[in-house]
Design a protein that fits this description.
alpha+beta; 4 domains
Length: about 400
C-alpha cells in the first residue's frame, strides 16, 4: 500500500513539473508566435499597401458594403484601407486583397487564392496599382479569360466603393442583377417586380432582349440602355418613346408567333444529335441539340463523368444567324464546367453565324465543356443543313 502511494506521489509530481514546464514554454513562446502571425498578416497587407505603418481590423458590421467584401483593415496612420474580397470567376472562392488610399487610388491588388486554372490572374492585379475608379474601368480584360479578369476588375471596384462608404460617403453598390430588376420594375411597375426573360425565336430590329411580366400584364423591351415598358395590348407606358409602333408591333409579333414541330425521325441520323426541332412561320429554326462535354468525355480528375450531354436550345435564321441561345441542362463539374449554364457564357453565341460561332471566350479550366458546347451549336447548323436538303 505504501509503495502504491509513493508511486502515485511520484507520478503526480512528474505531471506537475511537466505542466509547469509547458506553461512556462507557452508563456515564453506565445508572444513570439503571435508576433510572427501578426508579421505574416502585416506582410500580406503591406504587399498591397507598401507604405502602411500598421493595420487594425475594422468593424464593418454597421456598414452596407458590397457583398464581395469579407474583411477590412484600416491603416493606423490614416493612409487608407486594405480590403479583402471573395468573388467568383468561372470557379468559386476567388479571393483578392486590394489596398485603397485616402485619395481613392489603388495602392496594390493581389490574388490570394483561386480555383481558376489560368495563371494570368496571379499577376493581373499589377494593372490596377495607382489607378482611380476611372483608371480601373479602363484596365483591359484578358482575352480568353474575360469572366475571370472581369471578376477581378469588379472586385477592385468593390474595394474602391467600400473605401468610399467607410469614409462616410455613399455609392451605388447594387449588383448587375439588382440593377436589372430595378430597371425592369421602373419601366413596367404593373409587372409587380416579377419578370421572365423570353427566349427569342424571331428577330426584332432594335431590340436586344424582352422580359415578360409573370402576371402577363405586359413586357419590358431592352434597347441598348433603354428599358421600355409595354402593356399586354401593345400600349407603350414608358414616357418619351418616339417609335411606339416598333414596340406595339413587337408585342403583336410575339403573341402571333407559332412553332411547328419538325419530325426529326424523318432524317437519317438526326435523332442521335438533336433532341427536338421546330420551325417558326417566318422560317426560323428552334432546335435543342446535344454536346459531349466533360459529362461524357471526363474522367476522375474532378469526379467521374456523369454520362449526360450538354443540352442547348438555339434559334437560328435560315441564313444561319443565331437569334438566341440557352443552356437547357448540363451535368458538368461544379465550379468549373457548370459555368456553361451562366447567361454570361451562352449569350456570347447570340448574333454569331456558322462561320464565327467558335469566336467566344472559353470557360477557363473547362476545355471539354467549351468544346462540347460549340459541338452542340455546330450540330444545330448541321441539322438545319440536313433539313434544308443539304443546302447551306
Amino acid at each position: 500500500m505504501k509503495t502504491y502511494i509513493k508511486n502515485l506521489a511520484v507520478f503526480v509530481c512528474i505531471c506537475s513539473v511537466i505542466t509547469l514546464l509547458l506553461a512556462a514554454t507557452n508563456f515564453i513562446t506565445a508572444p513570439v508566435i503571435e508576433e510572427n502571425q501578426n508579421a505574416a498578416a502585416n506582410a500580406a497587407l503591406l504587399q498591397v499597401m507598401p507604405e502602411g505603418k500598421g493595420f487594425e481590423t475594422a468593424d464593418i458590421s454597421t456598414f452596407s458594403l458590397p457583398a464581395t467584401v469579407t474583411e477590412v483593415h484600416k491603416e493606423t496612420s490614416g493612409l487608407g484601407y486594405v480590403v479583402k474580397l471573395t468573388t467568383a470567376g468561372y470557379g468559386s472562392d476567388f479571393v483578392i486583397m486590394c489596398g485603397v488610399n485616402s485619395d481613392g487610388v489603388v495602392t496594390g491588388a493581389v490574388c490570394l487564392s483561386s480555383n481558376e486554372t489560368l495563371s494570368k490572374e496571379k499577376t493581373y492585379g499589377e494593372n490596377f496599382t495607382d489607378k482611380d475608379a476611372a483608371g480601373v474601368e479602363a484596365v483591359d480584360t484578358i482575352s480568353g479569360a474575360t469572366k475571370t479578369t472581369e471578376a477581378y476588375k469588379n472586385a477592385v471596384k468593390d474595394a474602391l466603393n467600400a473605401a468610399i462608404i467607410l469614409g462616410g460617403g455613399s455609392v451605388d453598390i447594387r449588383t448587375e442583377e439588382e440593377i436589372l430588376a430595378d430597371n425592369l420594375d421602373a419601366a413596367f411597375p404593373a409587372g409587380e417586380k416579377a419578370f421572365e426573360k423570353l427566349f427569342m425565336v424571331d428577330l426584332i430590329e432594335g431590340v436586344d432582349a424582352v422580359y415578360e411580366a409573370t402576371n402577363k400584364a405586359g413586357y419590358v423591351f431592352v434597347s441598348g440602355e433603354q428599358f421600355i415598358g409595354v402593356n399586354a395590348d401593345g400600349t407603350v407606358v414608358t414616357e418619351g418613346v418616339t417609335d411606339t409602333a416598333l414596340y406595339s408591333d413587337a408585342v403583336a409579333a410575339i403573341k402571333a408567333s407559332t412553332l411547328e414541330d419538325i419530325d426529326i425521325s424523318a432524317y437519317e441520323g438526326l435523332e442521335k444529335t438533336v433532341v427536338s426541332a421546330k420551325k417558326t412561320a417566318s422560317g426560323n429554326f428552334v432546335l435543342e441539340t446535344k454536346g459531349a462535354g466533360y459529362g461524357i468525355k471526363g474522367g476522375d480528375e474532378y469526379h467521374p463523368a456523369s454520362g449526360e450531354y450538354i443540352i442547348v436550345r438555339v434559334s437560328v435564321t435560315p441564313d444561319f444567324r443565331i437569334i438566341d441561345c440557352l443552356t437547357v441542362s448540363e451535368a458538368e463539374t461544379d465550379g468549373l464546367g457548370d459555368a456553361c449554364a451562366d447567361e454570361s457564357f451562352y449569350s456570347q453565341f447570340v448574333g454569331k453565324t456558322d462561320e464565327n460561332y467558335k469566336e467566344i471566350d472559353a470557360i477557363s479550366g473547362a476545355t471539354l465543356t467549351t468544346n462540347g458546347y460549340t459541338q452542340a451549336i455546330e450540330r444545330a447548323f448541321s441539322a438545319i443543313t440536313t433539313m434544308n436538303g443539304g443546302a447551306r
